[in-house]
Structure formats: structure tokens, C-alpha cells
Amino acid sequence: MNAALQILKDRGFFQQCTDVDGLSALMDKGPVTFYVGTDPTGPSLHVGHLVPQFALLHLRKAGHIGIDLIGAGTARIGDPSGKTEMRKMISYEEIDENVKKIEAQLDRFIGFDGKTAKTDNNKHWLADLNYIDFLRDIGSHFSVNRMLTFEAYKKRMETGLTFIEFNYQLLQSYDFLKLHERHNCCLQIGGDDQWGNIVAGVDLIRRKTSHEVFGLTFPLVTRSDGKKMGKTEKGALFLDKEMTPVFDFFQYWRNVADADVLKFFKLFTFLPVAECEEISAGDINAAKERLAWEITAVIHGKEEADKARDGAKAAFGGGGDKTSMPTAEISRSLISKGIGVIDLYAEVKLGGSKSDIRRLIEQGGAYYTDKNGTETVFSDVKTVVDEKFLDKDGELILRAGKKKFMRVVCK
Question: Could you say which of 39, 68, 175, 193 is catalytic?
Fold first, then answer.
């Protein structure tokens, strides 16, 4: 197997390939141009988008040429793959704004140089497409019977598949054809839920050009408990730090299950596999902290990763810099005259609604750090928090449950 493909396989990026021997032989001959697509249906990428992007960087490092295709055209429809219902339609203007934000995120992560890594946008060839001509030229090569055998469509047939979504596979296949024509792109990579779309694109190019191209998919990443990776209590784990604060991003990885550590090291860091295995075989808490730091450094930079790590240490009583913790400011007068503990938690937006906070306190899950640095439980929902609750720095460190912290600064 070609060395680049072996790297993907060793790190857990390999699920299916249309012709692994043919692709391996092509890669042995020299650089292969490949692409991964991302639809800008939201203002930020989330962790679910990261696997193809890490694969892109591994292939690029091995000498191949990557294209990040931003799907401003396909985002107008929405991909039915992996969805139980039709994606909510958003305006063209909102899609264009999302494109700008996502391109900037990808550029920080990938570093587009226009040679070894570049972007394209399928809006260029889809926005003004003549539908009749498209049906004659492209649609005539597709079998409805075969399309309905693919998992993405079979699942949606149970809940209702709209005609507009049914067109998505044709459009994604057309993307592959256009990238083959524009950039000599010979490989599409993506999650395994894209297998049907990728195979259809490979087949379309063969029919239209007689050229052989390839498709490769990655396993859909789930946690060891079977849940979707990157999902939190607040929803998706976004790369935009305004949507998911860096501290929360760090803490997500710091708190992954023991069984997931090695897998996530291989997928979401660039450390050699042997080093990933060595770290994961050692102290598991140290391994999780290293995992969290490595991923946060890749996405947000080393300085932000250091701050998040220091904030986590301070939150959990292991030293560190508490100014790096999530912080809320409240009026000094509220503390001076006293504020009910439920109202305090609500004021700093920790613990959910007031009824949630009441239950949290009644179940013994609300804490503060006293002047001696000792964490103390709020045992009474009627507790009034005043200046005697402040720590030696005149601040409050609050905790809700096992993992949510807030540094409260009185102004």
C-alpha cells in the first residue's frame, strides 16, 4: 500500500475505498489532487468536520494536493446523508456570510498556499446552472433504482425524502466532475455517510470522460459509549470560540472516556502513532490533559491551549492561573448586601434555569472555594452569599456539577 494511504490506515482514517490498489499505484507515481467538501450551513465548523481536514493535512504532508471545496451551492439544498429530516433552509445571504467565516477557520487550520492546499466554491458552477441542460447532460447517467439502494436515501425514505434533497447526489457528483476538469482532481475523501455520493461521482466521471478516479471514506467517529463524538450538553462543539469557549473546548477533550484516548490521539493530533500509543499507555489523566492541549493548540493556538490548561488546573485545585477560567463579572454591591445562592448562579449563567439550580443545590452539586482554598458545598438553597464567601483574592470560584466552573469577579 502507498505510504500516504498506510498513514491514514494506521491512524484510523480508512473505512472504504473504491479501488485501493489502483489509488495506491496512482499515488506511487506522484502527487495526486484530492478534495473534501464542506457545506456552509452554519457560521462555524464543529468537531464533526475535523476528521477530513486532519486527513487532508496528512495527505498534504505526504506530498499530495488538497482542495477544500466550500459548498455554497449545495448548501442551498442540504445534504440528506445522516439526517433524519430535511435541513432548515437558510438565505443565500446567510450562506455567503457563513462561507467567509468558514474559509477563515479553514485557512487558520490548513494554511492555504494555492499550491499544495487551495479552496474552491461550487457556487461558481451551480448557482446559475440551467436545470434542463443539467438533466440532459448529467441526470441521464443516474439510475433512480441504484440511488435508492444507498444508505443515505434508504434511511430517509422511512421518514420522508424531498425531491430537492434527492437531487443532492447529482450535484455532489457534478462537483467531483468539475473539480476533475478544473484541477485534475482524482480523489474525493469524506465520512462514510458520503459513500453513496462519492461512488456516484466516480461513476459519473468514468461515464463522461472515461477517466478512472477514486473515492475513500473514513469511519464515522463515535465515542466509546456509542454517542456522536463532539456533542455536548450545549450542542455541537464548535471551532468558533465565541460559540464554544476555548476552556470548554479544552475540557471536552480532557473529559473523554479512557477508552477513546488513543483513538482520538491518532485522529486529532499529528504526534507519531508510536508516541500516541506510549502516552495513552501511561497515566490516563496525564494522557487526557496532553490530548486536550494538543487538539486545542491545533485549533486555537498554543497560547490559548496554555491558558485553557492553566484555567483547568486552577478550577480543579491543581494550581494554575485562575484568570484563564471562564469568568463573569457582577456588581460588588450585590455581594455587599448579599445575594441568594440561586440568584447568584443565575446571574453568572451557571447551572441552567433557577429550577435547575435549585435541584443542583438540593442534590449537593453546587460548590464554592473558600479563603483557605477548600471547596465547600452549598447545602441550603436559602443560603445568602456575601463578602465572607469571597476567597483570598476577593473573588468567588463556583462549581456546578463535576465539570462546570465559573470565576466570579466583583466590580
Answer: 193
Clarify whether 41 is annotated catalytic. yes
Q: Does residue 228 carry a catalytic annotation?
A: yes
| pLDDT recorded at residue 80 | 53
Whether 130 and 170 share a structural domain: yes
pLDDT value at position 83?
A: 47
How many other C-beta atoms can be found within 10 angstroms of the C-beta atom of residue 94? 15
Residues 406 and 390 in one domain: yes
**According to the model, what pLDDT value does residue 141 have?**
85
Tell me which of 18, 38, 41, 296 is the catalytic residue: 41
Domain assignment present for residue 226? The answer is no
Helices (H), 111-234: 123-126, 131-137, 144-147, 151-159, 163-166, 168-183, 195-209
List 232, 313, 327, 403, catalytic entry: 232
β-strand partners of 217: 16, 190
Q: What is the reported pTM? A: 0.81
**Number of compact structural domains in the chain:** 3
Q: Which of 65-69, 262-266, 268-272, 364-368 has the lowest mean pLDDT?
A: 364-368
Catalytic residue among 9, 15, 33, 46: 46
Is there a single domain that holds both residue 254 and residue 160? no
pLDDT tens column, 74-95:
888 765 554 445 557 788 999 9
Are 33 and 184 contacting, i.e. CB atoms less than 8 angstroms apart? yes
The pLDDT mean for the chain works out to 88
Task: Determine the average pLDDT of the residues in 110-128.
Answer: 94
pLDDT value at position 38? Answer: 92
338 in the same domain as 291: no
Residue 151, CA atoms < 13 Å, CB-side half-sphere:
10
Choosing from 163, 183, 218, the residue where a domain stops is 218
Beta-bridge mates of residue 117 = 66
Active site residue 232: yes
User: Is 46 noted as a catalytic residue in this protein?
Assistant: yes
Is 244 part of the annotated catalytic residue set? Answer: no
Q: Tell me if residue 49 is catalytic.
A: yes
> Is 231 assigned a catalytic role?
yes
Ramachandran quadrant class, 133 (left: phi over 0; alpha: psi -120 to 50; beta: rest): alpha
**pLDDT above 70 coverage of the chain, percent:** 91
Same domain membership, residue 239 and residue 213: no
Query: 193 catalytic, yes or no?
Result: yes
Among residues 146, 181, 186, which one has the least CA distance to residue 166?
A: 146
